[in-house]
Amino acid sequence: MVFSSLTFLYLFLPINLVLYFSTKREQVRNGILILFSLMFYAYGEPVWVTLLIFSATVDFWHGKIIERYRGSIQSKLALISSLVVNLSLLGFFKYWHFFTENFYALSGILLPTHHYALPIGISFYTFQTLSYTIDVYRGEVKAQRSYLKFLLFVSLFHQLVAGPIVRYKDIAAEIEHRKVTLAKFSYGVNRFALGLAKKVLIANTAGAVASQVLDIRQTSPTVIGMWFGIAMFAFQIYFDFSGYSDMAIGLGRMFGFTYKENFNYPYMATSATDFWRRWHISLGSFFRDYVYIPLGGKRRFQLRNIFIVWFLTGLWHGASWNFIVWGLFYGILIYMEKLIGAARLAKIPSWLRHGYLLIAMLIGWVFFYYESLPDAIYVISTMFGMQGLPVIQTEIALLMRQNWRFFILAVIACTPIFKVGYIKVKAALKTQQGDLLDALMVGGTLLLATAFLVGSSYNPFLYFRF
After folding, report:
1. pLDDT tens digits, residue range 44-87?
2. Which chain regions cross the lipid bilayer (predicted)?
């Protein structure tokens, strides 16, 4: 099940809200949330609910052991055990086939393989439970005493399958006790509506256009066509993922949880470093706090640390070489920027730095889009006119003419212009008028999204595969 589906919007969520607010008892509310979260996860893949519960159970007991024997060898062994179990599960389900394929290509030895479907959201909830046991070991949080409360943390459907990666310490107090006010609930509804608009109205539209251009097996590639197609894919992946994060943050607020921001207008960045401070913030901060800094950060072996982090960042996104190349591509850019130095970069005109980032970002998305490295390299060479292909063709020109208004709208939506304008308009209104404006915005978004969902079968969610 996805948030941007009619089943979720008109059945699952309303029933969940009605039952949740029908009682004031915290334990009953927790039980309702756990039940609905497990139902949400089981909607697509019932069998993998057992894996989710197993992961939660393993780290619940590891956390208790770590705290009970803090400072002793037993505590360290429990931490190592948690790391081994969680990473082994992730490695088996997500990377074993990739490993066996490459091992066979290098050695000629055929290892046993498997063909299980990838459990949805395993990369997200594995990192969440790992961060919990590590933080308990570091003494940054106390181990949760209630298994059901810990299961609630792991299974919360708001962020279960696509993030943001929520750390236990950030919502520990709200797991124990939370209060939903009218203002918080209203903010949650508005934030959810914003995310729904991003996903259904912008991401789906951009994705449908991108797929028409980027299928190099079915179309005739051109220089401008490839740039246009990758730009549309850039819109799709940003509004798809940031829209889902907005919906998750909004849902969390409706139920009394406050999740940290996951995006901060990344396409306005002026460097690769700046881009990754703004894109998928929860993943970047995870690798910074649990990999980069423990390895030595910038104090020692910085080059090694950067490339380990960006190798893992690429690998986290998928078990194929295109994602690894994509991650290392950003690792190279970030290391080069560190060599140049922030002071020198700041002297370069901002428009030039922004232009560099946009070109680099679009090149990076080519590696992200095409799982075949030869295809990705072919497309990049086409974009720079090295394949001897036409600059543009009639079909591409027509497609661009049909979508130029949408393209401009998507560009503006990548900036804070709409947000700032909405805040200014609302501030100029009286309280009741501002509330009416919010209601009209939410109602209009729901109406448009419903029309789009009913009238189109194209509703992918890109980050489900991670």
Report:
1. 778 889 999 999 999 999 999 999 999 899 999 999 999 999 99
2. 33-56, 77-96, 146-166, 224-244, 307-331, 351-370, 377-400, 406-425, 437-458
Distance of CA 236 to the CA centre of its chain: 13
What DSSP assignment string belongs to 368-429? HH-SSHHHHHHHHHHHTT-S---S--HHHHHHHHHHHHHHHHHHHHTSSHHHHHHHHHHHHS
Instruction: Give the count of beta carbons closer than 10 Å to the beta carbon of residue 437.
Output: 14
Distance CA 364, CA 348 (A): 22
Task: Judge contact between 251 and 158, C-beta under 8 A.
Answer: yes
Residues of the chain with pLDDT > 70, as a percent, come to 97
Average pLDDT (443-457) is 85
Type of residue found at 274: D
**What is the structure's pLDDT at 13?**
95
Q: Is a pLDDT exceeding 80 seen at residue 435?
A: yes
Reported as a single tens digit per residue, the pLDDT across 281-336 is 999 999 999 999 999 988 889 899 999 999 999 999 988 999 999 999 999 999 99
Yes or no: say if 410 and 206 are a contact pair by the CB < 8 Å rule. Answer: yes
CA 426 to chain centroid, in Å, comes to: 30
Query: Is residue 233 within 8 Å of 214, Cβ to Cβ?
Result: yes
How far is CA 354 from its chain centroid?
23
CA–CA gap between residue 449 and residue 447 (Å, rounded): 6
CA 410 to centroid of chain Cα atoms? 19
Distance CA 400, CA 394 (A): 10
139 Rama sector, left if φ>0, alpha if ψ -120 to 50, beta otherwise: left
Structure-token match 């990192």, residue found: 127
User: How many whole angstroms separate alpha carbon 380 and alpha carbon 389?
Assistant: 12
Choose among 251, 236, 140: nearest CA to 189. 251
Cα(289)–Cα(1) distance, rounded to whole angstroms? 32
Per-residue pLDDT of 226-253, as tens digits, reads 999 999 999 999 999 999 999 999 999 9
Instruction: Provide long-range contacts, Cβ within 8 A and 24+ apart, for 401-404.
Output: 403/209, 403/232
Catalytic residues: 317
Find out whether 453 and 200 touch, Cβ atoms under 8 Å: yes
Per-residue buried b or exposed e for 221-234, using 16+ beta carbons within 10 Å of the residue's own CB: bbbbbbbbbbbbbb
85 is written with which tokens? 């179990």
CB-CB contact of 209 with 234 (8 Å)? no
C-alpha angle with apex 405: 399 to 409, nearest 5 degrees? Answer: 125
Token pair recorded at residue 139? 């003494």
